[in-house]
Structures are given as structure tokens and as C-alpha cells.
Design brief:
The complex is a heterodimer of chains A (about 625) and B (about 210). Chain A is mainly beta and about 625 residues long. Chain A contains eight helices and 41 strands. Chain A has two domains: about 450 residues, YVTN repeat-like/Quinoprotein amine dehydrogenase (Methylamine Dehydrogenase, Chain H, 7 Propeller), CATH 2.130.10.10; about 120 residues, Immunoglobulin-like. In chain A, a hairpin with a 7-residue loop joins β11 and β12. The radius of gyration of chain A is 29 Å and the shape is globular. Chain B is α+β, with helices and mostly antiparallel strands and about 210 residues long. Chain B has one domain. Helices cover about 55% and strands about 15% of the residues of chain B. In chain B, α2 runs antiparallel to α4 and α5 runs antiparallel to α6. Chain B is elongated. Classes of the chains: A mainly beta (about 625), B alpha+beta (about 210). Chains A and B meet through loops of A and α3 of B.
């Protein structure tokens, strides 16, 4: 039968055609659990293995995002060494419980740390302090002598959503702050959202750093249009004296910003002549807003210029020579390199294409040096020796290596997954080390044992010592690393105990004989001593309603002999380092007998290190 | 010559420039006792990879790590009920420098007088002092190891800490050795005896001449 033949024929054709149709692979091409072959794995293992007892070559200070902490890692082992609480209480070190740190935190018990910034001398890390921003309009200083938060400045007037900090200038004259979420200023002013474009303001600020003490105070503020100021970097060498801030939402849009703020092909990098701003404030210029002097560029020209940069730029990074300024438009496939000398020429020649609220807009074509086709979603750039630059690509989930001057992309390495910031060894200084680079990824998708839906982020160590970048190691961290900085270990010289002779605390006592309880009306002061393995006094009796201040001195001078003081049912735990004195204050409003004990394991008789607070009923 | 005559004659010997010089050097070496440690104790444990160190001088205890190590040793010893190592408990720190000074003066006196009798005096006195000091140090160690408070948290059998060499005590490897000061003090004896011997030998032929 003819029809039978047709059926058979068709069936045969279909079988023949099958290989041509094929089927989708089970995983994307090139997707592997590891980025290297077996021999490379052995090399990677050797490069990252820090033998027991050996020390890492670099410190990495990683922001802890909305945990409010800073995390310290060793590179190349990627071992987590320490957590420095900054904006959140942290019972592990008693931070946020004792009087001083509680006062520093104020009423806020969280912060959002994005950009750590190590202090610099001549554009190189000097190992003295670490400054970190907080979205809640604050900035903090960590002293690297003891890895402790020493000062929190703010919330600073007029700064709203301080994302664009804490980038220090090359000699740590200033750390920076800036508004990401423009509001009507001063804070507390209410203006309908419809008037966003004209009545809402972005503000950037320079926070003055005392050269000797590191003490921070507000230096100057500049009022800007309501763009969303995102990231920044201070000029160095030839561009020293200038500060660059990226912004998105040049549209001055409101509402569904993912659409409304993504309409223009170019937004702006604001270039601020911070020495001119400093001088204007010194000359008494500026208007009082929110209790501080704010410079209005319309009234004080010559301080701010806008550099058009495509598209919705995120990171701006100044190359080690200070000449190249790299702006990465996150919604495009190129990163833009500006030439500082051309910027200066354009300013001199008034080569402007317009203005925004009285601020001149420089002509893009006059200041641009190159558009480098790095890949999709460029965010941030770090630098290595020999004029190499490394740009993170969020959308491509990769790092592109390219060359300053020739603007050629020479290598790419995939990141797992969706890299945000990246940190190269001293990669934002005037003399980058190369060697190591860490990709700080936003997603980790099953590259670790499952820990449920709340997943850690992944940080990947990449070897950049050779021509080709090589993935070495996966590490995982608590939410959420944004920027990190990697500094050579020998630049830091931390102490390991607080020397007794430096302790000037008025309530410190150094001998158990001097401990005791004094009463002044209903105010009771306890001077206590912690030393292996007794808390003296071993009991304290007060009356209900008393205000109890306990000053605790750890009189040890031995490394690692920390002691804690946990007081049950009174929500109190402080940890006192060797040689340190801390005080805490509680209202003894609950009658009863409340044990206190050493919370930080100290010795063979640690368990016995305990006592009782007796609160007599009124 | 009878033994008495010989002895008398020996005591009457005078010291030459060489012997006197040796005695002066001995006196100078004694001065080092104010500068150098006499004994060194070093303790290692797993928790103390850098060791805890203590130098004993004639007049003070000096802990390693800017004095911190002695404090640490005391903190550890309090668990076994040992008394704190405290400078005021060492009577040696008072009399040792004094005696050394006195012997130094006697040495200078010997060098000035140049008489064998003085040299014998100072040598005997010094040897006695050295032996007594050693005994005193040993007894001190014994006392610390044997007068443990009955209320101690950790009961250990009374023990003698090592005086010379290594001993394992609980988790600690304890090393105890004389230090530079002690070696120089020993050299003082050697110098004094050398002076004695040289003076005696120089005189020997004369004695023989008398005999013939």
C-alpha cells in the first residue's frame, strides 16, 4: 500500500533527522565545579595552603554589609580571623553592652557597612586606621592598633543613605560621605515627592581626620542635585585634591526607579575639588543647613563639575598613576576611562555642554580617553602592577583583565556567581602588589554544603601573578561583603594586651585588695577585678531600685587571657581584654539572686570563675 | 722543716705583680654580679611555645617579656598553692650584693698588701660564700616546691624544681641552668686559686734551696 510506504518513509526520515535536532545539555557549556584541571588543582592547593602555625601574607578587611560588622581574613588562606563589630551589638566581644560602646552606637542597633577604607600616607596604606561607612549617615573609625571601633560620627546632618563613603584621600586628610537617597534638607523637612527634581537634594561631605589621633569631624558639605550618589574614589598623584563620585538617576526620577532612572544613556560622575571646598568653608562661605555649613555650587562656582558617564555608573576608580579615572556603567558592556589632564583642560577652556542646577557639565568627548569593551555589567575596577586593570562584571559573572594605555582586554575568569566588588592586593593604592585578587560574589548557589535558604555569600581567591588569571579558592562569608581591602600583613603592628601603664580609667583597680563596693545614695559603684580564675568581688549585694555601675578591670597582661562578665537575667555580657577596664550600668529593678560568671573561657578553673549579685527586695 | 714552719712560711709569702693582677681581675669580675643574671629558668608548655623565662640576679628577679613571665608563672603556680615568687621573700637579694661587695674589697686589700695570708682568707671566704649561696638557692627552690597551700585547687606532690638541667613538671618542660653571672663568679674562684698556685710555685725552688 502506498500510504504504508509513506508512513515508513516518514519514520525513517525522522530517525535520520534526530541527531540534527539533538537536545539541550544538562549544564551550560563550560560549567564546571572547579575552574581548573587536576594539575591546576594541586597548584592552587599549594598556593593557598598556609600550614598550621604559619601566617598569612595579607590581611583582608571585608565589609559585613547589614551585619554592621567588618570581617578580617587572612590571604591566601581565606581563613576568617576575626570579626570587628562596628554598628551592631556583638556579645562575643561584649560590644554594645558596656557603657562606652553603647554610647557610641546610640539608638541604632544596626548599620550597613559597604566600603572599608584604610588610612593612607602618600597614597599607600599606612596601617593606622580603617574607616567604614554606614547607610544610616554615619562613618566609623577602627584603630588597627587593637582592631577596635573607636569612634562613630553621625548621623551626619543632611547626608541621607551614606553609601558613597568612606574613601580616604591620599594622605588621609578626609574620609568621604554622600547621599544615595536624596531628601529635602535639613532632615525633618517634608516636601511632596512630586517636587523631587527641584526640592530634594543630594549632599556629599568631607570628614576631616586628625593626623595624630584619627578623630573625625565634619569638614565640609556640598549640596548637589538629587542624583543617587553611589561610589567614590579620591584622586591620587596628579589628580590629588579631587574627589570623584558616581551617580545614577540623572533623570531625577521617582517611583519605579529600575525603569525611571535607567532612561538616559549617560549619568554623571561628580568631580569635586575638595581643596577648593575646604577653602570655601574656611572663607566662611556656605549656608547653614541642619546646623552645618553647606556649599551651594551655584553660589560658589569652581568646586564641582559633572562628567557624563554611561550608563548608571556604579564604581569609579582612579588608576595608580592618578591620570586615568575608570567609570563603570553597570547597564552597558563597556567601562569608560577618563583622562584627568583632559578634564583639567576642559575645565580651563569651559568646554561645557550644559549645566545641572548651576553645575557645569563637561563635554564627554573632550574628557573621555577610551571605552573598554570589558563585558556586561561592569561594576568596579582594581589595579595590579604593569598597568593591568581588573574589572568585575556582574551580568557576565566574570572578571576582565585589561591593560591601561592599550585598552585591550587580555583575559577573563568566570566568577561563581554574580560578582559585585573585587579586591586586589593593595589594588587601589599608588603601588598595587598584584598576586591576589578576591571576587566578592553575591550568589553562591550550591557551591557549599546546603545550610538552608539563608545562604552565605561566596568570596573567591584568584591568582593574578601570571598572564592568565586562575581561580584558587572558594570561601564563604556571612552577609554581606561589599568592598574589601587587602593590605600586606607587615604594615600592621597590633598590640596583644593593653599595657597596664596606658590604662588611665578612673575606676580601674589592679589589685584584688582595692576592689569593693561604694554607695552614694541609690548609686552603687563596684570596682571589680578579673584574673585567673576569680571575679573579685565574688558577691555584690544591692537594693532593688539601685543604679549599679560595675567597672571591671582585667588585670592580666598575658596574651589571649580575655575574661568575660555575663550577668544572667539582666541582659548583660561584657568581655574585657588583658589590661582593659570596661564599665556597664544597670538598674537593679528585679529582686533576687543573679549569678555572674566569666563568659570567655580562660583557664582550667574557668568554670569556678563566678559570683552572685544579690538584689534585696525593697 | 716541720709542717708548722712550712705553713708559717707559706703564709708569709708575698705576691708578685702577676698574682696581684689576677686578684684585681677577680675583684673586677665580682662587679659583674650586679650586671649579669646568676641563674636562668625557662619553662615551655604547649600553651607557651615561646616559653616563660626568669632570670635570677643577685638582687632581683627578672621575668622575660618585660617582666610579664614572672607574673604568669605566679598565676599558674597559684593553682597548685605555691607562694608567689616575690622579691621581698628573697633575703639573698639583700645579703648577696653586700657580701660580694665585701669580698671585692677584701680582694683589693689582698692585692694592695700582697700577702699570701690575705689571699688564703679571701679564697676560703669566697668559696664558703659561693657554696652557701648555692645551698641557699637550692633550699629556696625546695621550699617553694614543698610549702604548697593545703587549700590549693590542684593537689600535686611536693617536688624539687630542677636546679641544674631539665625536669618535666606537669605540662611544663622546665630548664634550669646557671647564667653568665655564675660563670664569672666561678671564674673568680679559678683566678684566686691560680694566684695561690702561682705564688706557691714561684716560691717552691727557694724552699728546695733551703732544704739542700
Amino acid at each position: 500500500m502506498k500510504s504504508t510506504k509513506v508512513i515508513w518513509g516518514s519514520a525513517a526520515l525522522m530517525v535520520l533527522a534526530l541527531p540534527a535536532i539533538g537536545c539541550a545539555p544538562s549544564a551550560p557549556a563550560g560549567a564546571k565545579r572547579t575552574a581548573a584541571g587536576a594539575s591546576d588543582i594541586a597548584v592552587a592547593a599549594q598556593k593557598t595552603f598556609v600550614a598550621p602555625g604559619d601566617l598569612d601574607e595579607y590581611y583582608m578587611f571585608a565589609s559585613g554589609g547589614h551585619s554592621g560588622n567588618v570581617y578580617v581574613y587572612g590571604i591566601p588562606s581565606m581563613r576568617h580571623l576575626s570579626t570587628i563589630p562596628v554598628y551592631s551589638p556583638y556579645p562575643a566581644t561584649g560590644y554594645g553592652f558596656d557603657d562606652d560602646s553603647r554610647k557610641m552606637l546610640g539608638n541604632l542597633t544596626w548599620g550597613d557597612v559597604h566600603h572599608p577604607s584604610l588610612s593612607e600616607t602618600n597614597g599607600d596604606y599606612d596601617g593606622r586606621w580603617l574607616f567604614v561607612n554606614d547607610m544610616n549617615g554615619r562613618i566609623a573609625r577602627i584603630d588597627l592598633r587593637d582592631f577596635k571601633t573607636k569612634q562613630i560620627l553621625g548621623p551626619v546632618a543632611n547626608i541621607s543613605g551614606n553609601h558613597s563613603g568612606a574613601f580616604v584621600t591620599p594622605n588621609t586628610e578626609y574620609a568621604m560621605m554622600g547621599t544615595r537617597f536624596s531628601i529635602p534638607i535639613p532632615k525633618g523637612t517634608v516636601v511632596p515627592i512630586e517636587k523631587y527634581a527641584t526640592e530634594y537634594k543630594g549632599v556629599v561631605a568631607g570628614v576631616k581626620i586628625d593626623k595624630t589621633s584619627g578623630e573625625m569631624s565634619l569638614g565640609w558639605e556640598v549640596m548637589l542635585p538629587p542624583f543617587d550618589f553611589d561610589l567614590g574614589d579620591a584622586g591620587k598623584k596628579v589628580s590629588d585634591g579631587w574627589m570623584f563620585w558616581t551617580s545614577y538617576n540623572a533623570e531625577r526620577a521617582t517611583g519605579k526607579l529600575e525603569v525611571t532612572a535607567s532612561q538616559r544613556d549617560r549619568d554623571y560622575i561628580a568631580a569635586v575639588d575638595w581643596r577648593a571646598a575646604e577653602k570655601a568653608i574656611a572663607d566662611g562661605k556656605g549656608d547653614m543647613i541642619g546646623g552645618v555649613k553647606v556649599i551651594d555650587p551655584k553660589k560658589v562656582p569652581g568646586i564641582v563639575y559633572l562628567m557624563p558617564c554611561g550608563k548608571s555608573p556604579h564604581g569609579v576608580d582612579v588608576a595608580p598613576n592618578g591620570k586615568w579615572i575608570v567609570g563603570s556603567g553597570k547597564l552597558q558592556g563597556v567601562t569608560t576611562v577618563f583622562n584627568f589632564e583632559k578634564i583639567q583642560t576642559a575645565i580651563r577652556n569651559k568646554d561645557f555642554t550644559g549645566e545641572e542646577d548651576g553645575i557645569p557639565v563637561l563635554k564627554y568627548e573632550s574628557i573621555k580617553e577610551a571605552e573598554v569593551t570589558v563585558g556586561l555589567g561592569p561594576l568596579h575596577t582594581q589595579f595590579g602592577p604593569d598597568d593591568f586593570a581588573y574589572t568585575s562584571l556582574f551580568v557576565d559573572s566574570a572578571i576582565a583583565k585589561w591593560k591601561l594605555g592599550t585598552w585591550e582586554v587580555v583575559d577573563k575568569v568566570p566568577m561563581s556567581y554574580s560578582i559585585g566588588h573585587l579586591a586586589a592586593a593593595e589594588g587601589d593604592t599608588v603601588s598595587p602588589d598584584g598576586k591576589y585578587l578576591v571576587g566578592l560574589n553575591k550568589l553562591s548557589h550550591g557551591r557549599h554544603l546546603s545550610v538552608g535558604p539563608s545562604q552565605p555569600e561566596s568570596s573567591q581567591l584568584v591568582d593574578i601573578s601570571e598572564e592568565k588569571m586562575k581561580l584558587l579558592y572558594d570561601a564563604f562569608t556571612e552577609p554581606e561583603p561589599h568592598y574589601a581591602q587587602i593590605v600586606k600583613a607587615d604594615k600592621l603592628h597590633p598590640i596583644e594586651v593593653y599595657p597596664k601603664e596606658e590604662n588611665k580609667h578612673p575606676l580601674a583597680v589592679w589589685d584584688v585588695k582595692d576592689t569593693g563596693v561604694t554607695r552614694n545614695g541609690t548609686n552603687v559603684t563596684v570596682k571589680a577585678v578579673l584574673v585567673r580564675s576569680t571575679i573579685t568581688p565574688t558577691s555584690v549585694t544591692v537594693n532593688q531600685g539601685d543604679t549599679l555601675t560595675v567597672a571591671i578591670t582585667n588585670i592580666e597582661q598575658t596574651t589571649d587571657e580575655l575574661h568575660g562578665f555575663g550577668l544572667l537575667d539582666y541582659n548583660m555580657n561584657v568581655v574585657v581584654d588583658p589590661g582593659e577596664t570596661k564599665t556597664f550600668t544597670i538598674k537593679a529593678d528585679k529582686p533576687g539572686v543573679f549569678p555572674y560568671y566569666c563568659t570567655n573561657f580562660c583557664s582550667a578553673l574557668h568554670q569556678e570563675m563566678q559570683g552572685y549579685l544579690i538584689v534585696n527586695k525593697k | 722543716m716541720t709542717i708548722v714552719q712550712r705553713t708559717n712560711r707559706f703564709f708569709e709569702l708575698s705576691l708578685n705583680l702577676r698574682e696581684r693582677a689576677l686578684v684585681v681581675v677577680a675583684a673586677l669580675l665580682l662587679g659583674s654580679v650586679y650586671l649579669l643574671p646568676l641563674w636562668n629558668l625557662t619553662m615551655f608548655a604547649p600553651q607557651y611555645p615561646d616559653g616563660l623565662r626568669m632570670n635570677i640576679y643577685s638582687y632581683k628577679l627578672e621575668g622575660g617579656n618585660a617582666g610579664q613571665d614572672v607574673k604568669e608563672i605566679n598565676v599558674l603556680n597559684h593553682y597548685i598553692g605555691m607562694k608567689d615568687l616575690a622579691a621581698e621573700d628573697f633575703t639573698e637579694f639583700k645579703w648577696m650584693p653586700f657580701v660580694v661587695g665585701a669580698i671585692g674589697l677584701l680582694c683589693l686589700r689582698t692585692a694592695a698588701h700582697g700577702r699570701m695570708m690575705d689571699l688564703v682568707d679571701v679564697t676560703v671566704l669566697y668559696t664558703y660564700f659561693a657554696a652557701f649561696s648555692l645551698w641557699s638557692f637550692g633550699y629556696k627552690l625546695y621550699s617553694y616546691g614543698h610549702s604548697l597551700a593545703p587549700t590549693a585547687a590542684v593537689k600535686v606532690a611536693p617536688f624539687m624544681p630542677p636546679m641544674f638541667g631539665h625536669k618535666k613538671l606537669a605540662n611544663f618542660d622546665v630548664y634550669s641552668y646557671p647564667a653568665a653571672g655564675s660563670y664569672l663568679l666561678t671564674l673568680v674562684v679559678v683566678l684566686l686559686v691560680a694566684a695561690l698556685w702561682l705564688a706557691w710555685r714561684d716560691d717552691a725552688p727557694a724552699v728546695m734551696t733551703v732544704d739542700t
